[in-house]
Design goal:
The protein has helices spanning 11-18, 20-41, 49-52, 55-72, 83-99, 106-134, 137-168, 182-205, 214-223, 227-236, 243-273, 283-316, 319-335, 362-384, 392-399, 401-420, 426-443, 450-457, and strands at residues 345-349, 356-359. With 458 residues, the chain is an all-alpha fold. A hairpin with a 6-residue loop joins strand 1 (345-349) and strand 2 (356-359).
Length: 458
């Protein structure tokens, strides 16, 4: 069970240790909102998009447990345990963000996606273990909520960048001759810089606790050296997963099928169902791509706000109740996009630049944002209390198997369902994603929240 005697950190200490997630999600948001658009612009067919997206989950499957294991077994007097991986991942991910919009052929963009996702995973996975390392159980939900806040903030800005460049700064949004629009290109450049700078902020403003017994730590690491021992230890941990982790894995499976469907297909679904085009080189399709960026900014903005409200609600009810409720709301919201065939303006909000039109497409994104905040907070908060501290990084990496496995399943099957069951109408694939998220909500009821029970027993 976790150590309840760790020092309580201040708000600004939580801020500094989580700030790197602002850049990490900046990169993820640019990827999520624009990768399908880039692939389509470079000639990919809608049925093939899930296969090209397999780069993301496969790199996660390979990288996360290895990085988790290595970070558990790392200690440096200056760099600490997790921060070396933050640093290395940030350098590689920033490079990939600069390369992605300069792809001129489809295979180049797919290859860069592999590099980008592997690099993001190198820096992201240890961030989850970082909370378990530094915070007592009483602050872990707040720690993950702070990460969720920065995830939301980074994603909002990143998702809006193509629209800001095209609508307010006069940058071209045209995919002339099948080239990636300048609005997307410049957005990725800013993303690369934001990723590097924000992760470095955490690296150089936050310290880490050394192992309780440094000599014992060194001795254990010496005994486990060697590739064979490392592989055996990594594989052996699968048979020792805590029961709570297995239960949460089922919830994660259905949650991430829904999210992957949304990230792959929202651009083509909105282009088809609302803008009434399937031509990826048309101005209407590129406009739909920009608007999906705004929609994604809405759900991420809602998640940043909800990140601070969900822990309060969880304290008054339970984390299981909150996660169940949020997933059901999110699933219903995602499925409801099928019903929207025109982007009706509901009301306008005056701003110093122009009126901001709140449209019908934003309504489902509110529910999706609530679910996203919970997905980023509650499972990890529940899990952290069920893990041994000396294997926090490893098990957080293994837990992310149940994020990437459903994405692989989605990559292999969603295209088939879209083509043969939904006649190419990707908005119906979004409905399927919504149903999966609702199922995940009800499956949360089977999860045993061990930290809550241990506190009651004390």
């Amino acid at each position: 069970m976790k150590d309840f005697n760790k020092p309580r950190l201040s708000f600004w200490q939580l801020w500094n240790m989580s700030f790197g997630f602002f850049g990490i999600q900046f990169g993820f948001a640019l990827q999520n909102a624009n990768t399908s658009r880039i692939f389509s612009t470079l000639g990919a067919k809608a049925d093939d998009l899930p296969l090209f997206w397999l780069a993301a989950p496969i790199t996660g499957l390979l990288v996360q447990p290895i990085i988790g294991y290595l970070s558990d077994n790392t200690w440096h007097p200056f760099w600490g345990r997790r921060r070396p991986f933050f640093f290395i991942g940030a350098i590689l991910a920033s490079t990939a963000l600069f390369l992605m919009p300069n792809s001129t052929l489809l295979w180049m963009a797919v290859a860069v996606l592999w590099l980008m996702d592997a690099s993001i995973n190198i820096s992201m996975e240890p961030f989850r273990a970082f909370v378990g390392d530094k915070l007592s159980p009483s602050q872990q939900t707040a720690g993950f909520a702070m990460q969720t806040f920065f995830i939301g903030c980074g994603a909002v800005i990143a998702s809006l960048l193509p629209t800001i460049f095209s609508d307010y700064l006069g940058v071209s949004n045209s995919a002339a001759n099948g080239a990636i629009p300048d609005s997307v290109r410049y957005s990725f450049y800013i993303g690369g810089a934001a990723y590097l700078l924000s992760v470095m902020w955490t690296v150089f403003t936050t310290d880490e606790f050394p192992p309780e017994s440094l000599e014992k730590f060194k001795a254990e690491r010496a005994n486990s050296k060697g590739l064979k021992n490392a592989v055996l230890e990594i594989l052996g941990g699968f048979g020792q997963m805590p029961k709570t982790m297995i239960q949460l894995a089922v919830v994660q499976f259905f949650s991430w099928i829904a999210l992957f469907a949304m990230w792959i297909y929202t651009t083509s679904a909105i282009a088809d169902n609302v803008y009434h085009t399937t031509d990826a080189t048309s101005s209407a399709f590129q406009d739909a791509g920009n608007y999906v960026g705004i929609m994604f900014a809405v759900y991420n903005g809602i998640s940043a706000i909800a990140a601070f409200l969900l822990p309060i609600l969880a304290k008054r009810t339970s984390r299981k109740f909150v996660h169940t409720l949020c997933l059901i709301i999110g699933g219903l919201s995602l499925a409801s996009l099928f019903l929207i065939t025109s982007n009706t303006v509901l009301f306008s909000i005056p701003t110093p630049w122009a009126n901001f039109d709140f449209t019908l497409l934003f309504v489902p994104m509110i529910g999706v944002g609530i679910a996203w905040a919970s997905i980023l907070t509650m499972p990890y908060s529940i899990l952290a209390g069920a893990l041994p501290s000396e294997k926090m990084g490893y098990y957080m990496g293994v837990f992310n198997f149940f994020v990437v496995i459903p994405q692989i399943v989605s990559g292999l099957l969603l295209g088939f369902f879209t083509q043969y069951f939904f006649q190419g109408h990707t908005v119906k694939t979004l409905m399927l994603g919504g149903i999966c998220m609702i199922a995940a909500g009800f499956l949360t009821l089977i999860v045993k929240d061990e930290v809550v029970l241990s506190r009651k027993a004390q």
